[in-house]
Amino acid sequence: MCDFEIQVKPRIVLNISITLVDKRHLGVLTVIMSLMFIGCLIVEAPDKYTMKTVSNITEIKVPPETLGIYLEEQANKRDIGKTPTKDHVKEPKKVFSIYGKPMSLLPPSKTYVVPNIVHYIWIGKNHNWKFYQLLSVLSTYYFVKPDVIYFHCDYEPIGKWWKVVKQKVKTLKIVRINMPTSIFGRLLWQSSHRADIYRIILLYNLGGIYFDTDILGLKSFNDLRVYNMTVGLEYHPGPVQGHGYGRVNNGILVAAKGADYLNVWWNTYKNMSSWTEHDRHCCIIPYTLIQQHPGLVHVEEKTLNYPSGPEYHLLYKELYDYSKNYAMHLWYENWKGKYNPDNIKKLNTTFGRVARSIYYNTTDFVD
Ligand SMILES: *[C@@H]1O[C@H](CO)[C@@H](O)[C@H](O)[C@H]1NC(C)=O
Ligand SMILES: *[C@@H]1O[C@H](CO)[C@@H](O)[C@H](O)[C@H]1NC(C)=O
Ligand SMILES: *[C@@H]1O[C@H](CO)[C@@H](O)[C@H](O)[C@H]1NC(C)=O
Ligand SMILES: *[C@@H]1O[C@H](CO)[C@@H](O)[C@H](O)[C@H]1NC(C)=O
Ligand SMILES: *[C@@H]1O[C@H](CO)[C@@H](O)[C@H](O)[C@H]1NC(C)=O
């Protein structure tokens, strides 16, 4: 009776209880029974932490255009397999589900398993590179300090801020590729959907750290480079319509080459019924996969994507203490503010501070 995947969809429980309590006229008995029912679900549901067998790898092939960098990575192993120094690796804070159970059971490896490379993906012809996107690549270069920043694109961006990127970022490598246009026989209409697929292909074949162009890197990712796979939650303080309590945000992914979690995720696309399922496959399914395969993925709750969307004010109106963050997700295109080198000079907000630290090398106001 209690064998539900209830931690995946806590909203269902809440809905049931609200419906039943609202119909008080059906009698006290109904209320008591519903409480017992919920209690039973909460006590029993989320206890099954076994690692399932991972399906066979047949589909994730790196496109021929990227083979060049693939071979280069193979030749140059960098620090993969090296033991991190103690002060590099600290035990990250465990993330617990709303039921108080640990969400992830992936132990850290003794050596680095994720190469220190950052990937960006860019799709579209004659698209302007914006100031906040300059900040993203500069912050990666200055603060994350990867060995290489791979910029995978079908066309290069245009505009003055792109010129600045090419001037300043010495470790930038531009890789021209054709984006995937279908998966398992289904066409991918939207650029964002193509990029969702391509980042899985990239990370599975090369490993590394993937950033959307509205991510600011704030410090080294070495602490996370000892996990085969790391995802960050989009943190919501309560149930969100259709999402339960959580979503993975695929704007930041950290993966070792061949990470099993990516393979499992990839295979769920076999079930995609139409392009409208984009959001379900990029963010909701990977969250349910954490519950199904807690041994395959390390979860960061608030250090990658928090402040999340519903809490814009912490980024753009207040001063949030981001000292524990590896990165900051700007959700920029959803925010009405538009920023440039002038209006960040005395901007007394979280974004203002971080933007100055990247562009002016100081968190203080500048003249
Ligand atoms: C994966 O599939 C290939 C070809 O279908 C097969 O040869 C191989 O044995 C499979 N590997 C595993 C681990 O099942
Ligand atoms: C990480 O992945 C590698 C390759 O798939 C595997 O051999 C290793 O056991 C994994 N490590 C952990 C801690 O799961
Ligand atoms: C596809 O959906 C079916 C039915 O919901 C499920 O049994 C199966 O595990 C799914 N396959 C993958 C790869 O997610
Ligand atoms: C910035 O804002 C904080 C409160 O959000 C305030 O305490 C501080 O005085 C402000 N700093 C300046 C220089 O205006
Ligand atoms: C930022 O300033 C520090 C000293 O305050 C200096 O060591 C560092 O090189 C500067 N970074 C850049 C990118 O100019």
Automatic annotation (TrEMBL):
InterPro entries: GlycoTrfase_DXD_sugar-bd_CS, Nucleotide-diphossugar_trans. Signal peptide: none annotated. The keyword Repeat does not apply. Pfam families: Gly_transf_sug (PF04488). The keyword Nucleotide-binding does not apply. This is Uncharacterized protein. The chain crosses the membrane at residues 25-43. Coiled coil: none annotated. Keywords: Membrane, Transmembrane, Transmembrane helix. It comes from Tegillarca granosa (Malaysian cockle). It comes from the Eukaryota.
